[in-house]
Batch of 3 targets.
Target 1
Amino acid sequence: MTTKRWILVAAVLGSGIVFLDSTVVNVALPRIGRDLPRSFLGVLEGQSYVYNAYLLTLSSLLILAGALSDFYGRRRMFLYGLVGFGATSVLCGLAPTMELLVLFRILQGAAGALLVPGSLALLTANFSGEEQGRAFGTWAGASGATTILGPVIGGLLVDTISWRAAFFINVPLVVVAVWATLKHIPESRDEQATPHFDWLGAAVVALAVGGLAFGAIYGQQRAWRDPIGYIALAVGVVATIALPILMMRSAHPLIPLHLFRSRNFSVTNISTLLIYGALYVTFYYLTLFQQGTLGYTAAAAGAGAIPGSLLLIFFSRRFGSLAARYGPRWFMALGPAIMALGVLWYSRVPATSAPWRLQPADPSTYLPTLSYLIDFLPGSMVFGAGLTMMVAPLTTALMTSVPVRNSGVGSAINNAISRVGPQLAGALIFVFLTANFYSALASKLPGVDVSSTSFRNQVSPLNTPPDPHLVAVVRDASTSSFHLAVLVGAVLLLVGALVNAIGIRNADSLERQQPVAESDPVPQAGA
């Protein structure tokens, strides 16, 4: 195997274990809640912290990690991330209590933050031209594969061995990635960086991203009835407003503002916010609708997304190559538009759609129902085709729009937007759709106080109540809210497609090969 292939293997494994861990562990949460003793955390609260502590730390530290990679060396920081992720995975697998597991998950998220932007920075520094586009496509396809396989692998490990195996599975992958990194990856860094790292900027970035992410997640979990969510959002907003002011005043800014002079970089980040916001809203409510309203099992809901996602695995590399050859603009415009068509298909799903209950103990349940084949499969396939067309070109447009010396922080900015933006969009739309759900109930249940706490504890968009007199009404209201959610998702996708069609320039990929104009400040990647 050639050196470049080993570089690709290391990058794919490094980012893959980060994506894999979020989906694998999610399946293991019920068993973790039953098995681990707790001192002060409740069962559901502990499960939530095990999942969200990892994601919050990961999101909060992405930009800092990207800047550190450019400043101290991408190979070095990538190795630190791999070793740290492997060590914390072992600690998570050995955790004796829920509280310690949450602590180890926080540390694991911090290590993971070094791997996601670091993997793309390594590909940018070591590949070029059409070869780079294929590498980005492979990276995107592997990310899709881990997302698909995560629940399957997690379920098998939990059912056949233990939930602890869901963490130990990372260790052999880390060992291979560490060997490939030490053996085949050359060191690269921002050679124009000054000796001073912007630690104040790093703190403000962590407050901005962490405050927004925590506020959105916590507020949505508490149905916006707890002031802590609002306080966290306020801290995040203030830090976000202060950040560009601080960067302009700093002699050595953590985030080089000259990056945003690149049209493709700015447009790609705007479309990322819109498109990934649509993904979060659509599939969050799709899962709730299938399981809470139609009666799908968790396994069936997950398996239903596999056919469309397989397109991403098998064809993403091809579209990455085409984007490098012909430019990413029209792929980034047509992809989200096709995704919107797939999402709109779900708006025709009726409240009476028959559930597909996948039961591993009963082989006959592996055959999907006619309702699934008509109501969900066509939308999944069309959506998957658009996603495959869009993901690798978007990555290509992003990474070719920044100088190689800033590839770590450039990748990290986009990754942070793709994680925090959808959470914020989902939180806002959750409030809107919940109001729509209870408004629909109020119109069909005259004389019932649908705003009372006791009623809402029994009836919510997340589940159909056991009361047979309410079942039909709640199913209709849930279906109406789901249709509204997918319409919102389709609109976001179409706006993203329009932004890309108008804003992306195929020629912008040439700009990174040209020297910075003398009138521009010397780029400082995290220095």
Note: The mean pLDDT is 82.
Target 2
Amino acid sequence: MFNEKELSRIIRNEGGVSRRFFMAYSAALASLPFLGVRASAADRKVTFASNPFTLGVASGDPDATSVVLWTKLAPKPTDPDGGMKPEHVKVVWEIAEDEKFTKEVRTGTSIASPQLGHSVHVEVEGLKNDRWYWYRFRAGDATSPIGRTRTLPALNAEPEKLNFAFVSCQHYEQGLYTAYEHMMKDENIDLVFHLGDYIYEYPNNPKALARVRAHSGPKDRKIQTLDEYRERHVQYRLDPALHGMHAKCPWFVTWDDHEFDNNYANDISEKKGVDPIQFLIQRAAAYQAYYEMMPLRKNCLPKGPDMKIYRKASFGRLAEFLILDTRQYRTDQPNNDGIRPLNEEALKPTNTLLGKEQRGWLQKSLIASQAEWNVLAQQVMMGMAQLGKLKDTDEGLYSMDQWPGAAQERMDLMKFIQDRKVPNPIVLTGDIHSNWVNNLHVDDRQPDTPVVATEFVATSITSGGNGIAKPKMLDELLKANPFIQFHNRERGYVRCTVTPEKWVSDYIVVEDVLKPNGKVVTRESFVVESGKPGAKKI
């Protein structure tokens, strides 16, 4: 394997940033977990001085007949390499129809390789449709906690109901994961969607906003290396509420920016003068650490600084989820980012959040869908919210990091959904540490035009510390943006109940994330009736 200096030297000798080189370099990485299968070290009897399953278990990306099971061996999780030697370790997995494992249906072995941080990603095939299962791992003389997972209904099935939650933004320093503690008590949740900012890359800063616990890692800069990204992920996953909720049901995950670097756009840093070669090397480290820690399929294995994470999931014919990536392929934010006018620069048709290939895949998927509800699970707000006015003018100001930064692409997408008569489009969003319900138009600046879709935006789990129920200038915001049905800035998550007839989103908020046992309440609920775009308050 190359170290960072060797990578930089080779790339520079090729005359610049070479994705061809990265593809060749990472082709070897893609085969590493499988080379270990033949390693004699994997057959060696292993004993651990302490529990190697400190990070728990997780599952994810289920379909009708399979699911990904995940764990990571780390007897000393906060040590470099998790306290593991640079050896391959055989891990046994089991999955059963009951929690006591009297009805075991599949078992097998996998290899925890040092190249992937001794993480394990098992794709269990041949399972029954729409069924709950229990699973566990064994390595040496140690047995993992038991996790619960499920498969999805068959593609042609017509389920009566789906219950799921979606979340984002869980800054470790800025609050406790009370929302996950509450979510764990809900026996009806089938799935969790995490829409980004699973970790934050910021330094261990004693002066951080609302700091209630400290980041690990460097104090004078953001994390940058593979070891540092791994350490940060481990710190987050050690939280018992977070890894407990992972064990409760399968998750679908996608990233936003903080899994790598704040407000990055493709291979462009938000800061000026950043070496693009080093930036891509850092992105490769961030993406590998993310893959290692998430219950993702092998087809998501990163290739250097590239990792395909957009994909779909079908809950029978009830709901089709299209999980997007609005970071890796986007163009640079127009107008130097920030809150800016929706001017010619922002309206350039070449601006994109999706990139050409992902946009084509999304359109094809929407056309082919046979689902009652068609859901975009993505990162940044699609509602074109006017957040103020340019001084001494009536010109509105909008967020360039959100969809207004690619306003033409966003309006074209809404027009596509409208023209193709895509049934019941719903957008799920995270990112901005606040709750929103938006009735989307082709152009939200024209509120008298038809509503095309509904957007539900979930606030942060912790990011920003304690929020407020009624932000300042709320009345002015709603007056300037008639498409907005609800907005507040408390912490929490959104719980969704979906039937063929209606979609209900409950906004669950935690009134205090700075202290244990914060009060949790349902602040508001909204319904969308099938065939009638737009949400209404219940």
Note: Residues 20 and 240 are 41 Å apart (CA to CA).
Target 3
Amino acid sequence: MTLNRADYNAQPDLNNAIMKALMWKAVYCLISVVLLSCTALDKVKPETRIKNIIMIIGDGMGPQQVGLLLSYARQAPHSVIANRITALDRMMEQGRLGISMTYAADTLVTDSAASATQLATGKFVGAEMLGLDKDGNPQENIIEKAKRMGKATGLVSDTRITHATPAAFAAHQTHRSQENSIPEDLLATGADVMLSGGLSYWLPKSANDKNSSIHQQLLQMTGNSVEIKSSRKDDKNLLTIAQQKGYTLTFNKAQLQQATGKTLGLFADSGMANGIVETQNRDNILHTQPTLKEMSEQALEILGRNKQGFFLMIEAGQIDWAAHRNDTGLLLHEMLRFNDTLNGVLDWAENRQDTLIIVTADHETGGLGFSYSGENIPEPRSLPGAAFTDGALFQPNFNFGNPVVLDKIYAQQLSYHDIFSQFDKLPKDQQTPIKLTELVNRYTEFKINEAQALKILTTEANPLYRAGHISLGEKTVPKIDVNGAFFVYQKENRENLLAQAVASNQQVVWATGTHTSTPVFVFVKGEEQVMRPFAKILHHTRLGQLAIDALQK
């Protein structure tokens, strides 16, 4: 039946019935859509819930250090990075990028202890404090929070487990130097996996007696893999306490690979092997000290067995040590170690939707940069382009640097620290400028001369060169003041001076021997909704709180 307007107006009851029917049908459809949507969300939610958080900290790794890695990957004629694609490139394929300020409470610049504490707690802290707030009150850190939630937890570092960054995620001390107390805090917090160096802070002082029974027992326990010496001021054997708390002790790569549960791995008496040594040993299947990548992969294997998930902090800590010494060759190898480790983590997390990876730094160290100079300006040359067909020559006014220098930086065979260690082992009468020249020129591609070596040795740290002026043949060289405000580590000043001697040949400048306030990158990879808040200008307290929030999702 067809109704015209007159019929419609004449049947109000019928019209009302039709409208009500249509209205209820629309409501029914809307409810159905909502219910179906909720069902779909319920199905997605378990797959996108963040179960695992992996925080990777490049200690001292500012944008400048990242730039060194990227320059080497992209421009070195013989780059060892496969396809010139870094792990950070992989992070950004589906990740997000933010930046973060790092300063501690009431300061312009931070140290590692304060910065890492801010990442671990989300609270401002005073310089060189561990696990406290700015007023000195202990604060719950992300590992303690994770353990309350039933998650597994881990700390991995290539420095030592009692050093500032790993300690900040487990200890509560007024100063980072309290490394006799920090191991007890680590055991009290009870991270399931702790892998690093620093064995000397766990051993009783009686272990220093090589004839003692404890020394012999430790040699057998460690498989003679680690030097046995104690840095403790008491006779506590914290390894025994760790065993009582259920930890399996490991001291070399083979022992670590057998570990399946709670594990304490201490693979060096203090810091672990540096990046150059690790590069040289990586392809040696007999190497006994695990690499940072190997430690991280084993930590993931162990922690990944917890059905509730885990929190893992991995520190590439010797980036900072290389930058303090202004050792560009060593720094490159430390960045390559970081790159290898991050690649391993990304491989483990491939296709996982339940894992958030955060890559950042606690601060920048050294104020590094490649720079153009007025030295060694290239000779003019012709170019085939149309603009040069009239005989004009390509002739820049400055030396902007040849990428070949990156291969030469990579080719360094010993760190500056190890070069000076060899020098210091020579008989006193052989600790001369010519001997230092021979060592530097043997182990690096950037040669120095005897006059430069003399300047380097003119430091307060070297008693042979304390005179106000020192003669070199017929030349008299004024004593150099290396006690500048920004070169505070006296034992390393010779290394900073060596860096200055080769700087123009490396195309490298260093601003300082300490930390800077340069904001650092924050790379994140994971579920989009969780990543988004990180892609902003942050402070490390906010970055730390975002990590804690993600842990609780």
Note: The chain has two domains: 48-368+513-551, 420-508.
